[in-house]
Amino acid sequence: MRRAVQVTSKDHILKVMSLTRFHFVAGLPKSGARYFASLLAQNSRFCVSSDSPAHSVFCHLTEAWAQQDGPLSFVDASTRTALLRASMDAVHHGRAMDSVVFDNNPEWLPHMASLAELFPLSRFILLVRDPARIAAEMAQETGGAQTPAALMSDHGVIGKPVGCIQAALTSKAAERLLLIDYDRLLSDPERVMNAMYSFLGDVVFTHDFRALPPAAPRAQRMPMGLARRVAAIGDGTRRRIQKNDLPIWRRSSGSAATMLLPEAG
After folding, report:
1. SS3 string of 169-202?
2. Distance (Å, rounded) from C-alpha 8 to C-alpha 247?
3. Contacts of 53 (CB under 8 A, 6+ apart)
4. Interaxial angle between packed helices 77-91 and 54-66, expressed in degrees from 0 to 180 and rounded to the nearest 10
5. Are β-strands 100-104 and 46-50 bridged in parallel, bridged antiparallel, or unpaired?
6. Residue 72 included in any domain
7. What pLDDT shows up at residue 4?
8. How far from the centroid of its chain's Cα atoms is residue 261's Cα?
9. Is residue 74 part of a domain?
10. What is the mean pLDDT of residues 225-229?
11. Which domain holds residue 144?
12. Residue 155 lies in a domain
């Protein structure tokens, strides 16, 4: 009597790769991405990692392929795609077969277009916050060593990721983007997380929100003078506070992205 052929380890690995969904968490500085990741990690079905080696491996492979006469310059496009996909699988190899992977790293922002093509089932969750408030806090922490204008420049710590978010909101992959304002997460965490599960098409999990910091009072606002200085992101002009001075996500009504912003009032 012939024995049934068993599934090989290679076939098993390929099955795990095909079943796994890889999602990416990123955002602006001081916008609660780590708090959000800690909430995700409460769900035992989720494999959550902050600052994993995935981004470094991804960049090294991309750079090696691009270098003329480099170690991977001979690799064709289809093999490159397979290698980049496999790199994410390799970094998170310890996950359970039915897990959902969330890789949290702010450096994913410039790569969102490439990631969208590599991982067709992926979703992107971006944590944002009023850039003026972030700039004020960072400038205060450094004692003025970093000015709001420098922070908000095209290559600044805040201005550069804001530019990436703008590109993401207008990209073809915008419908796979969930943008969460940090203040909304703090003031309404249960509804935010329920909306996230709906966005992912996953089963809602009951989270413990006691580890979140308290929400800021609604009346707390950025001084008008500072807001004027940091509002202009790319053109360097000085203008009165108006609609164009709002963060880019508040001006992107035509974007296909899902946005959870603070409620008016």
Report:
1. HCCCCHHHEEEEEHHHHHHCHHHHHHHHHHHHCC
2. 52
3. 91
4. 160
5. parallel
6. no
7. 40
8. 16
9. no
10. 37
11. 10-52+92-207+220-260
12. yes
Q: Helices marked H in the chain — which ranges?
A: 9-19, 33-40, 54-66, 77-91, 112-118, 131-141, 148-151, 159-169, 182-187, 189-200, 224-231
CATH number for the domain harbouring residue 133: 3.40.50.300
Whether 240 has a pLDDT exceeding 70, the answer reads no
Rounded to the nearest 5 degrees, what angle is found at the Cα of 62, between the Cα atoms of 37 and 72?
A: 140
Q: What is the pTM of this model?
A: 0.82
- Name the token pair of 154: 């095209």
Give the tens place of pLDDT for each residue, 202-213: 999 999 999 999
Closest CA to 190 of 122, 260, 126: 260
Are the beta carbons of 164 and 110 closer than 8 angstroms? Answer: yes
Give Cα 135 distance to the centre of its chain.
20
Contact 166, 155 (CB under 8 A): no
| Residues 219-222: contacts with CB under 8 Å, at least 24 apart | 222/130, 222/132, 222/133, 222/136
Q: Which pair of structure tokens corresponds to residue 23?
A: 């999602």
Q: How many domains does the chain have?
A: 1
The predicted structure's pLDDT at residue 144: 75
pLDDT of residue 73: 77
- Separation of alpha carbons 177 and 26, rounded Å: 11
Percent of the chain at pLDDT exceeding 90:
59
Cα-based angle 120, 93, 84 (whole degrees, multiple of 5) = 45
Report the helix count and the strand count for the chain, using DSSP H and E.
11, 6
